Amino acid sequence: MKFITVRELRLALGKVWQDLEREKEIVVTSSGKPVAILSDISGDRLEETLRALRRARTQTAVSRMRRSSLDAGRDRISEKEIEDEIRSVRRSLRR
C-alpha cells in the first residue's frame, strides 16, 4: 500500500490518480499520521462500495466497544444490575 502526504496530493494530483489506478488504495498522511484513504472504484459500484465501507466501520466500532466493556469488567454484570440500570435511565429521561 502506498502512502502520500497531503502536500503531495495537492501538488501532484495527476500522478496520484495514475498511482491509484495501479495501487488501488493510497493512504493520505498529515504530519506523519494517516488521515484518509483513497480507493479506486468504478461508478457503477459506488453504492455497494460505500455500504461495505460503512459496514466495516460499524463492525470496527462494535469490536472496540466490546473490548472496552471486557476491559472494564462489564461482562460480569448480573441481569438484575442491567435491569436496575435501565430502570434508572428511564426514570431520569421522564423527568
How would you describe the overall organization of this protein?
With 95 residues, the chain is α+β, with helices and mostly antiparallel strands. It has two domains: 1-40, YefM-like fold (3-Layer(aba) Sandwich), CATH 3.40.1620; 45-95. It has helices at residues 6-11, 13-23, 46-71, 79-94, and strands at residues 2-5, 25-30, 33-39. Strands 1-2-3 form a three-stranded mixed beta sheet. Strand 2 (25-30) and strand 3 (33-39) form a beta hairpin. It starts with a strand and ends with a helix.
In a few lines, what is going on in this structure?
The chain is 62% helix and 18% strand. The protein is α+β, with helices and mostly antiparallel strands.
State the share of residues found in helices, binned by percent: 55-70%
- Secondary structure: number of strands: 3
Could you spell the SSE succession in H and E letters?
Answer: EHHEEHH
> How many domain units?
2
Low-confidence residue ranges: none
| Number of distinct helices | 4
Q: Work out the radius of gyration.
A: 22 Å
Our estimate of the beta-strand percent is: 15-25%
The end-to-end span amounts to 53 Å
Class by SSE composition: alpha+beta
Main sheet characteristics: 3 strands, mixed
Tell me, what's the shape?
elongated
Write the layout of secondary structure elements.
Blueprint (H helix, E strand, L loop, with lengths): L1 E4 H6 L1 H11 L1 E6 L2 E7 L6 H26 L7 H16 L1
